[in-house]
Amino acid sequence: MSVFDDEVRTDEAAIFAEAGDLADYQGADTSAPNIYVVVDKAFEIYDADQLAMRVTTISVRSADVDRVSQGDTITLPPRTWVVQQILEDDGHVRRLWVS
């Protein structure tokens, strides 16, 4: 890993800690209690007909959650969200469509 990658990961952790909320991630293959996540309740995506729609997303750090699958859960009291799809993955942060 490069010095640049190290800097990005360091800054990313600080951003998540400052702007995020503590949650518990649970999947079939992985478990990550007490991680910081960032919730966006109005992220715009396009459906198969290219119609815009707003969905709730939760972003998690790849360093905290190494594997993500549809059906995994993220508990952010008082609600538990279910992962529907990975929308973005840049190798550092994954944006997950949740419901």
Describe the structure.
The chain is an alpha+beta fold and 99 residues long. It has one domain: Beta Barrel (Thrombin, subunit H), CATH 2.40.10. It has 1 helix and 6 strands. The protein has a 6-stranded antiparallel β-barrel with strand order 1-2-3-6-5-4. A hairpin with a 5-residue loop joins strand 2 and strand 3. The longest helix has 17 residues, at 3-19. The termini are far apart.
Sequence-ordered SSE layout with sheet pairings:
Layout: H1 3-19, E1 21-26, E2 31-46, E3 52-61, E4 73-76, E5 79-89, E6 93-98
Antiparallel strand pairs: 1-2, 1-4, 2-3, 3-6, 4-5, 5-6
Q: What key attributes describe this structure?
A:
single chain, 99 residues, alpha+beta, Thrombin, subunit H, six-stranded antiparallel barrel, 1 helix, 6 strands, 54% strand
